[in-house]
Each structure stands twice: as C-alpha cells, then as structure tokens.
Design brief:
Layout lengths: L14 E5 L5 H10 L3 E6 L4 H12 L3 E4 L11 E4 L8 H8 L3 E4 H8 L10 E5 L4 H14 L6 E3 L5 H6 L7 E4 L2 H5 L8 E4 L7 H4 L2 H9 L8 E5 L3 H9 L7 E5 L8 E5 L2 E4 L11 E5 L8 H16 L4 H10 L8 E6 L2 E5 L6 H8 L5 E5 L9 H7 L3 E6 L4 H11 L5 E3 L7 H12 L5 E4 L12 H19 L1
Parallel strand pairs: 1-2, 1-4, 2-3, 4-5, 6-8, 6-9, 7-8, 9-10, 10-11, 11-12, 16-20, 17-18, 17-20, 18-19
Antiparallel strand pairs: 12-13, 13-14, 15-16
C-alpha cells in the first residue's frame, strides 16, 4: 500500500478478534464495532478492572471473553492485537495456522486513516532502543514552531486511533513506535522515519537480536523522503540499506561530530544541516545552538539532531528547528536535575531502565556517584562499567539484581567504593541518597541511572524517580 493510499476494507459483518483490553484494545474494539464489524475481545486477565471494562464494551454489543486469551474464536477473519502480546501465544499460532491475518494497533490505525473523509496526515516515525519519546516530543515541538497542526502520538500522547479518527485535523503526525508495534504493522509506510540506536532489549519477546533489529527496521519500509540513521551506530545504517523504499528516498545520517554530505551534525557548538541544503558538498545550514537543547547531554543532542532531520525532511525552516528545541521541556525522570546541595548536583534518570540508556546517562557527567540496581532483565554490566569506570566516584547499589552490578564493578573498577544496600522497603531510596551524599565531593553528580527495571521495589520507573526526588529534598532540608 503506497504512502497516501487509503484502505478500503469492508468491515460490515467482518468477524474480528481483538486481543487484549487496555489502552489500545478498547479503542480498537470500539472503532471496529462502529464500522459494523462483529467484534470479540479476548483477554487473559479476569480481575475487577477487566470486568468493568468488559461491561462497558458489552453494553455496546461487543462480545468479551475474560480469562481466556489463548483460544481463537470460531469464524475469526482478522486478529487485532495489543502490542505487548508475544508472537508465540497460542492464539496467534492458531490464527497463522488458519490463515488469519494479525494486525497491531498501529496497523489498524494506518488502515483506518482517511476513512473519516479527511485527507490523511503523513507520519514522521521514530523508533530505537532509547530516546524515542524525547525525540518524538522534540519533533512535535519543532513542527508546532513551524505553524503545523501536529501531535506526538503512538506510545505517547494522543492514541493513534484517536489521531486518525478524531475530530482534530492534523497536517503531520510525530509517531513513536516500539518494536512490538512494528512487528504487527506490515503495511505501514511513513513519509520519513528514524532509528535512533540499537541495543539488546526485549529479546525475550523477539527471540533474538536479529529479529529485534528486523522489527525496528520495518519503520523504513516504503519511506518516501528520508530514512534517518545514527552515524555512530552502523546497525541503524545497515537497516536503511536493507529497506525497500520509494524511488528518491534518501539516507540521512546524524552525528555528534562534523557532518559529511547528507548528514546533520555539530560544529563549534552549532547544530548544522548538510543534508537539506542546495549544495551539500560545500554548504551547511545552521539550525540551532547546542545550548538550545535541554538538557545538552550528548545523547540528547543526538535526539535533537534526529528530530531536526525528520522536520527538515518535511520542509521545516531552520528557525522553527531552533524555536522548537528552545520550547521543548523534557519529561520527568529523564536526566532531570533535582537539586544542587553543597556543590553536588542530584540528577534523576530513573527512565534509564537498561544498560544502553544508562551508558548515555553516565557519559553526560565527568564525576559521578552512581545509584543503580533493580531487575536486570537478563542484562550484563561488564561493558557498561568498563566504559564508565573513570567517571565513577562511588556507587550505591539496591534492588534484586544489584549483585550483578557489584560483580562487574569488582572486576572492572575495583578502586570505586561501593555501598550494597540489602533492603527493598520504602526507606531504601532515602538511605541510598544519604550514602551517595557521603561519597560525593564538590563538583560531583549523584546520578540515579539504575540500568534496571523498577518493579522489584517500585510500581514503575516514575515512582522510583519520585522516591529519589523526595529523598534528595529531605537530604537538602537536613543539610540546610
């Protein structure tokens, strides 16, 4: 399906099974029901919340089966799945055996765009192991600065189905896509797309690094104007080479160094464009200053360059890139400066839930007391510690898998003092901050960058970050 073609599926009487209640399943069931499909929702859980959601859908005439997400309902002609459901679930194996297509929420949104009689808005898509949300929000800020009607959608902000079917009209959408979503989106064709980086993540879901990378690479399929890749991460450029794109689509790199032709990069503290200029062999267009990026950590500058590349691919003027970056405010718990106490900075990067994100976080500071630990999700920490060893003033470890980090520190940074907190109660973070404060010296940064998931001790990374900020504020009061 070409970039601007609109799907002509006849939904009337079509038997569709929606796999999973929740943020994507419920809107999908409603949208399909409104178009005349005969919808059955299946869901593994059967708790109080699921029963309440089921009652709302059943009141509309939608069938809901709770506690059985494994069996394919008879007469199913299409399965629409929530992104988190793993491909090896019995429901999907049964669908494949019966020759029934499986779509994700992104695929459904793509197929439904334009069916409300409006011209569908082009998609500028972003994926990658880390930095997706920040980059998409930066991109939306730049597009807004250019006077375009836009929204950050997909994994964040407005749901994709609401964006393509709602009352609001858009000129262009900034779309965050996970590897899960891309796996189930075979016909997606973006105007332009970026893969920010690739590192091992979600391998339990995808089965292998190769399968994970292949799903990320789907974002480039059928791009019409630009495939944006990370010049420092050759795997992203490899995905561009393997993609089947529209005639004339260009490969555009971004780099923290001096850009070559068809790249965006940094020269003397200036973000510059050597891709979308009349003579890219000899010309460079100034876009913004590094100081316009908030915060100006290296990996965040890379995010800004990727967002700028997608905006420029859409024809946005340089001044809007600068204004959009200046207007952008990062989400909480992403390298968020909490306080300065006694010439020591306290920074919350609770969102750094894997080693790749933590590597970028640690690279942003020169002298660090590192608070880390949690659920490792199968990760190893030797490479992370080796790269950061010279920056570490000390480390405070907490959480279920802290021993894995401690062992890596013993092997690769034996001179770094380590505090091992053997507690998982709500007061653990306060003790961690107190220990970190004792290890820190003027000019240091106490950095929460756990390199692990949070669910062993906290509901999510947001709660972990809030606990850190509360502990820092309590320490500030004691130190006053």
């Amino acid at each position: 399906m070409g970039s601007q073609e609109v799907s002509t599926v006849d939904w009337q009487g079509k038997h569709v099974t929606v796999a999973g209640l929740g943020v994507s399943g419920i809107p999908a069931a409603r949208a399909l029901h409104e178009r005349g499909a005969l919808v059955t929702v299946v869901n593994d859980g059967d708790d109080e919340r699921a029963r309440a959601q089921a009652a709302e859908l059943e009141a509309l005439g939608i069938t809901v089966r709770l506690g059985d997400g494994a069996t394919l309902p008879p007469s199913t002609e299409l399965v629409v799945t929530a992104p988190g459901w793993q491909p090896d679930k019995p429901l999907f194996l049964a669908a494949a055996e019966a020759g029934v297509d499986i779509w994700g929420d992104v695929e459904l949104a793509w197929r439904l765009r334009g069916t409300n009689g409006r011209e569908p808005a082009p998609w500028l898509a972003v994926t990658g192991t880390n930095g997706k949300t920040t980059t998409v929000r930066m991109l939306a800020s730049i597009l807004e600065a250019a006077g375009l009607r836009t929204a950050a959608v997909g994994n964040i902000g407005v749901s994709l189905l609401d964006a393509v079917l709602g009352e609001q009209e858009y000129d262009v959408l900034a779309v965050e896509l996970s590897s899960y979503q891309l796996h189930w989106a075979p016909s997606l064709r973006a105007h332009s797309a970026a893969v920010l980086n690739l590192a091992p993540d979600h391998l339990d879901w995808h089965g292998s690094m190769e399968a994970y990378a292949a799903d990320k690479g789907r974002v480039y399929e059928g791009n019409t104007v630009a495939c944006v890749y990370n010049a420092a991460d050759p795997a992203t450029e490899d995905l561009v080479r393997e993609a089947d794109v529209e005639e004339g689509c260009r490969a555009i790199g971004f780099t923290l160094g001096t850009p070559g032709p068809s790249q965006l990069g940094v020269v003397d503290g200036i973000l510059v464009d050597r891709a979308f200029v009349a003579n890219r062999q000899k010309q460079a267009q100034e876009l913004a200053e590094v100081s316009d990026v908030n915060p100006p950590a290296p990996h965040n500058i890379a995010n800004a360059l990727a967002a700028a590349a997608l905006a420029r691919a859409f024809g946005v003027e340089p001044a809007a890139v600068r204004d959009g970056l200046r207007n952008f405010r990062p989400d909480a718990h992403r390298i968020e400066h909490v306080a300065d106490i006694g010439e020591v900075a306290y920074v919350d990067d609770s969102k750094a839930t894997n080693t790749h994100a933590t590597e970028a976080s640690l690279a942003a500071y020169d002298s660090i007391v590192w608070i880390a630990g949690g659920l490792a999700k199968g990760a190893t920490f030797d490479e992370l510690v080796t790269g950061a060893a010279k920056r570490l003033r000390g480390a405070v470890l907490m959480g279920a898998d802290r021993a894995l980090i401690r062992e890596a520190l013993t092997r690769h940074a034996p001179e770094v003092p380590v505090v091992d907190l053997d507690r998982t109660d709500t007061g653990a973070m306060s003790e961690a901050v107190e220990h970190a404060a004792r290890l820190a010296r003027p000019g240091d940064t106490v950095l929460l960058a756990p390199a692990c998931a949070s669910m062993d001790m906290f509901t999510n990374y947001n709660k972990r970050g809030e606990a850190f900020a509360d502990a820092v504020r309590a320490h500030a009061e004691k130190s006053a």
